[in-house]
Amino acid sequence: MKVVVFKSVPDNWNKESRDIKMNTVRVDDGGIRFQMLREWIKFKEYGHIVLVNTETLEATIKCISDITPFKEDEYIISWR
Q1: Distance in angstroms (rounded) separating the CA atoms of residues 5 and 51
Q2: Could you give the strand order of the β-sheet that contains 74-79, starting from the edge strand earlier in sequence?
Q3: What sign results for the dihedral spanned by CA atoms 24, 30, 31, 37?
Q4: Is 16 exposed, middle or buried (0-12, 13-18, 19+ CB in 10 A)?
Q5: pTM score
Q6: Of 33, 15, 31, nearest to 23 (Cα)?
Q7: How far apart are CA 64 and CA 22, in angstroms?
Q8: What is the mean pLDDT of residues 68-80?
């Protein structure tokens, strides 16, 4: 399974884990996660996103349905 992991503040994580908020905007930090995202975009084969609550360290996993480049170094990651 292809997976990328991102931290999420509690207010956002609570909405994301309950599918109230089904996307996130992330700024490319030049790391391997974003290399993977660019590869997934290129081949239109998406993996999963794990969102980790920054306070409780609880995690939720979602199946990515779309990754949209936004501005020069930002991506909108959507899931279902």
Answers
A1: 6
A2: 3-8, 48-53, 59-70, 74-79, 23-27
A3: positive
A4: buried
A5: 0.93
A6: 15
A7: 10
A8: 94
The DSSP secondary-structure symbol of 54 reads: T
Residue 58 sits at the vertex; the CA angle it makes with 52 and 60, to the nearest 5 degrees, is: 65
CA 58 to chain centre: 15
51-61: string of b/e by CB count within 10 Å (b at 16+)?
bebeeeeeebe
The residue ranges of DSSP E strands in the chain, in sequence order, are: 3-8, 23-27, 48-53, 59-70, 74-79
Both tokens of residue 28? 């490319």
Contact 10, 58 (CB under 8 A): no
Q: pLDDT band for position 55 (50/70/90)?
A: very high
> Are the beta carbons of 75 and 25 closer than 8 angstroms?
yes
